Amino acid sequence: MSDVLPGLSADGPTVKALDRAGVFHSWSAQGSLDPLPIASASGAHFTDYDGNRYLDFASQLVNLNIGHQHPKMIAALCEQAAKLCTVAPGFANDARSEAARLISELAPGDLNHVFFTNGGADANEHAMRMARLHTGRFKILSAIRSYHGATAGAIALTGEPRRWDNEPGMPGIVHYFGPYPYRSVFYASTPEEETERALAHLREVITLEGPESFAAVILETVVGTNGILVPPPGYLAGVRAICDEFGVLMIADEVMAGFGRCGEWFAVDHWQVTPDLITFAKGVNSGYVPLGGVLMNEAIYATFDERVYPGGLTYSGHPLGCATAVASINIFKDEHIIENARDLGANVIGLELAKIADQHPSVGEVRGLGVFWAVELVRDRATREPLVPFNAKGADAAPMNELKAACIERGLWPMIAGNRIHVVPPCVTTEPEVREGLAIVDEALGLADSYYT
Ligand code: PLP
């Protein structure tokens, strides 16, 4: 037992009992929780206290792009900790400056300045505030199928049901429909038609809600938790054009989609669109230490050249967070991790999921890119009736819970969201590991097929 961490590394049942006695978990009813105690981890795997090893096809919360316990990340963390553990945001710090330099070098266009945060929700809070101060307008457009975080403003931006119990939220948020060709609310029959109609809808919402009142549109470049919705051709460029026309800023939330998840540094790189602000977190340093941030362009930066930016966080630009971001970006470059994520998507996951879809009538659609994929399950391919109803709870969610349990029994930790399995392994996962995981998904899907009518 260690002198400085006495009592840690107890047995699994003790860890769980202490958790249930003292820890209040997020997004959960506390009474029915049964968290798995994790003892150790490496790369794309983690291990529980009974020695069961799981392939982490969820990348924890889709943040572990570099994998568990990368030795160079740990070395960077120890090196920075030995040198300087903490420094207030008002000082200059080498790890922070280098992280800002590297991140803005990777970012598109003139997004050259970084405001660091502790995670994704606060990055979105600050992007919203910057947009309001820069434009002098207050309304923000946000997609109905979106998740932007759990702080007061970020949950108000969020379109999906997790917002509901947090209402009334913040005045000035207007929700709109983004594109979703498989379940088009625009009655579009092709992705191109979906783009055209989704853009017409966005334009109409802005026009009828008062164009002069809008500060920004915020959107997930690739919608994450709400379906891994890859924007159809021309959509992001169309949003950019509408923003320019109405003098509205474009905020790309890349908290989940950025830093390799989509097989590019930033997901917008796929479509060569330059937003005014990009928010990031998760993959920037894979959560080895909490870190997020807002990238802003020169025009927004100039707004605060003389005007004081009225916001900040004690831990903004934390040296341990920034040192691990620097290390992570360098490791990504040295070990060609972006390329690995891109290749896995194009040459393994996409092809294997297409085969899986052929074999299982319960698969309605597979979609994604990089290491960011969804398998959408239905009860009927013709009607596209979802395997479980929207926002299913309790017994209604049973088919997805059974699927999750079947994967876990076979050594795969899956990500289940609504009526979908999200295939979101770390960017460092090897091809054999991905194939092993997909074979388990394939086997488990037999269960979903049994519900097929
Ligand atoms: N934005 C998106 C797209 C996310 O997926 C998330 C979290 O999943 C957030 C924001 C919130 O990030 P955080 O949990 O770090 O506050």
Structure, briefly:
One of its GO terms (cellular component) is cytosol. The chain has two domains: 12-69 and 337-451, Aspartate Aminotransferase, domain 1 (Alpha-Beta Complex), CATH 3.90.1150.10; 71-335, 3-Layer(aba) Sandwich (Aspartate Aminotransferase, domain 2). The protein is 38% helix and 17% strand.
What does it look like?
The chain folds into two domains: 12-69 and 337-451, Alpha-Beta Complex (Aspartate Aminotransferase, domain 1); 71-335, 3-Layer(aba) Sandwich (Aspartate Aminotransferase, domain 2). The protein contains 13 helices and 16 strands. It has helices spanning 12-22, 59-62, 71-83, 94-106, 120-135, 152-157, 191-209, 235-246, 298-303, 319-334, 337-359, 398-409, 431-449, and strands at 38-42, 45-48, 53-56, 111-117, 139-143, 173-176, 214-220, 249-253, 277-280, 292-297, 363-369, 372-380, 385-386, 412-413, 415-417, 420-423. The strands form three sheets. It has a seven-stranded mixed sheet with strand order 4-10-9-8-7-5-6, with helices on both faces. Pyridoxal-5'-phosphate binds next to helix 5. Pyridoxal-5'-phosphate is lined by residues 61, 119-121, 124, 147-149, 220, 224-225, 253, 255-256, 281, 292.
Jot down its keywords.
38% helix, 16 strands, single chain, 5-stranded antiparallel β-sheet, pyridoxal phosphate, binds pyridoxal-5'-phosphate, alpha/beta, 2 domains, Aspartate Aminotransferase, domain 2, 7-stranded mixed β-sheet, 453 residues, Aspartate Aminotransferase, domain 1, aminotransferase, transferase
